[in-house]
Amino acid sequence: MALSLSLLDQNIIYEGETAQSTLKQTVAFAQKAEALGYDSFVVAEHHFTKEIASVAPEILVGYILAKTDKIRVGSGGVMLQHYVPYKVAESFSLLHQLAPGRVILGLGKAQGGKDEAIEVLQRDFIKPVQSFDDKFIEVTRFIRNNFPS
Predict the structure, then answer these.
(1) Strands 103-104 and 107-108
(2) Contacts of 84 (CB under 8 A, 6+ apart)
(3) Local confidence band at 17 (pLDDT 50, 70, 90 cut-offs)
(4) Residues in a beta bridge with 104
(5) Quick one: angle between helices 19-35 and 57-67, nearest 10?
(6) How many whole angstroms separate alpha carbon 149 and alpha carbon 147?
(7) How far out from the chain centre does Cα 39 lie?
(8) What pTM, to 2 d.p., does this model score?
(9) Which backbone phi and psi does 73 adopt, to 5 degrees?
(10) What are phi and psi of 106, to 5 degrees?
């Protein structure tokens, strides 16, 4: 039985780099791992941390799958306590349909970011659910980084 080799990339944004350049390097790292014969490549999930580029592993996994041919790619843990399990299962099932046999769903229970991130990510599980209109406004504010002072 051969030893299985895998790599984990935390997508750290080093000084002088940007999230975009870091994510390009992550894809190149996965391609190099594939060329070297590694079995799998996984990415981490972190929130509200400006030094880390990966906040949505399912999106990054899909992109890496599209840029590689045979290496298995996955999450080095989706922080399940922040999400509805059904949505996580749906997302990774779709990835599996796009790249059969190559998707890894790693689940984690670490905080996955700063306290502020946990408060935002788990808010609907603790407090009454917001209306669609309130969520629509909040998504717009997050995308535009435009919150009232």
Answers:
(1) unpaired
(2) none
(3) very high
(4) 74
(5) 50
(6) 6
(7) 19
(8) 0.79
(9) -130, 140
(10) -100, 135
Q: How far apart are CA 30 and CA 41, in angstroms?
A: 6
Give the model's pLDDT for residue 54: 86
DSSP characters for the chain? -PPP-EEEE--B--TT--HHHHHHHHHHHHHHHHHTT-SEEEE---BS-TTB--S-HHHHHHHHHHH-SSSEEEES-EEGGGS-HHHHHHHHHHHHHHSTT-EE--EE-S--B-HHHHHHHTHHHHSPPPPHHHHHHHHHHHHHT----
| Residue bearing tokens 């790599």 | 7
pLDDT, greater one: 113 or 42:
42
What is the C-alpha to C-alpha distance for residues 61 and 93, in angstroms, rounded to an integer? 12
What single letter denotes the amino acid at residue 4?
A: S
How far is C-alpha 14 from the geometric centre of its chain's CA atoms? 18
Residue 21: pLDDT over 70 = yes
Owner of token pair 């995308």? 143
